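Good morning,

Attaching, inline, the backbone tokens for the sequence recovery test we're adding to the shared suite. The designed sequence is right after.
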């Protein structure tokens, strides 16, 4: 059930690189384009004045940096994909009590947004 390829602490823990420039770690996944993008490429492709700025994007999991995040753990202040969420929050009884909320897609420019704002977006819902 749990995937064992999370790789935390192993020697081959590489962040997924940006699909476009392949020279920076990706930070978001565009659901519309099905691509992982670094902040620079995201700003380029989803510039506020272009139609693509309405593409829905999600943050990349902070733990494995390889999959789109599905949950925000408020206790850890971390964005987690479903497999990391399952892995981390099944590891001990305390962690399993953490309150997680589903991550909503980011729409619009990422400029001025960072992980701290995710909580606000979810509250506004
Ligand atoms: Zn890039
Ligand atoms: Zn896009
Ligand atoms: Zn993950
Ligand atoms: Zn947690």
């Amino acid at each position: 059930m749990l995937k064992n390829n999370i790789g935390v602490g192993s020697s081959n823990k590489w962040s997924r690189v940006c699909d476009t420039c392949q020279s920076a770690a990706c930070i978001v996944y565009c659901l519309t384009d099905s691509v992982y993008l670094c902040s620079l490429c995201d700003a380029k492709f989803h510039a506020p004045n272009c139609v693509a700025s309405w593409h829905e994007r999600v943050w990349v999991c902070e733990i494995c940096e390889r999959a789109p995040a599905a949950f925000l753990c408020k206790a850890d202040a971390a964005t987690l994909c479903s497999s990391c969420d399952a892995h981390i929050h099944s590891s001990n009884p305390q962690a399993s009590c953490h309150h997680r909320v589903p991550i909503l897609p980011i729409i619009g420019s990422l400029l001025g947004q960072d992980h701290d704002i995710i909580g606000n977006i979810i509250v506004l819902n």
